[in-house]
Amino acid sequence: MGRPRGFDEDAALEAAMRVFWEKSYEGATMADLTEAMGINRSSMYAAFGDKESIFHRAIERYQEGPMTYIRQALARPSLREVVAGLIQGTAEFLSIRSNPPGCLLIQGALACGTNAEPVKQAMIDWRKSGEAVMRKRLQQAQSVGELPREIQPADFARYLSSVMAGLGIQAANGATRAELRGVAAIALRSIETVLSGARSS
């Protein structure tokens, strides 16, 4: 018999998210999940479904929790504030010592076996949807003259995503907060040369 639905589902899902964050989708075993979540398999299946279902819910939680700094950055009034919020915010987020190193959206299912191909594709779709949201915000900035006309918002969104993903890889490699901030500062100086074209055009 499974454990009665008396456990804290929110805390269990938080624990599952952190297991996937640390070990990736394929690296996380059912034993890892049940131990971290504090429930047995019967209770886990009853409350959350199979491993893939738990992973999807964990990713949603990751986006709605640890990654909320992205939504906050995109809501800032000026493009420079948006870009600074995204890049500096990523460096700060990845520097939190209590979190597993790196970014779950990158490391969670970047490489998977055949059986986990749907999970890998879901991660690709999640990352692309994030770029789409950034592209829309950049289009708005371009419409008011903050982004030079010769810069394609889609290309700039991919560039920002690449910088943020690169910071995630550096964090997974063990980069310190100071080192991540240094990379962010260089990226922002480079971007400033692009944005300054909006003032002179």
Fold and architecture overview:
The protein is mainly α. The chain folds into 2 domains: 9-61, Homeodomain-like (Arc Repressor Mutant, subunit A, Orthogonal Bundle), CATH 1.10.10; 67-200, Orthogonal Bundle (Tetracycline Repressor, domain 2), CATH 1.10.357. The protein is built from 10 helices and no strands. Helix 1 (9-23) crosses helix 4 and helix 9 packs antiparallel against helix 10. The model has no long low-confidence stretch (mean pLDDT 90).
Which short descriptors sum up this protein?
201 residues, 2 domains, elongated, Tetracycline Repressor, domain 2, mainly alpha
Largest sheet: none
Quote the beta fraction. Answer: under 5%
> Quick one: CATH class of the largest domain?
Mainly Alpha
Query: Outline, from the CA principal axes?
Result: elongated
CATH superfamily of the largest domain: Tetracycline Repressor, domain 2
> How many strand units?
0
Helix-residue proportion: over 70%
SSE sequence, one letter per element: HHHHHHHHHH
Tally of separate domains:
2
Rounded to an integer in angstroms, the radius of gyration calculated over CA atoms is 19 Å
Q: What is the straight-line distance between the termini? A: 70 Å
What class do helices, strands and sheet pairing give? mainly alpha
Mean pLDDT: 90
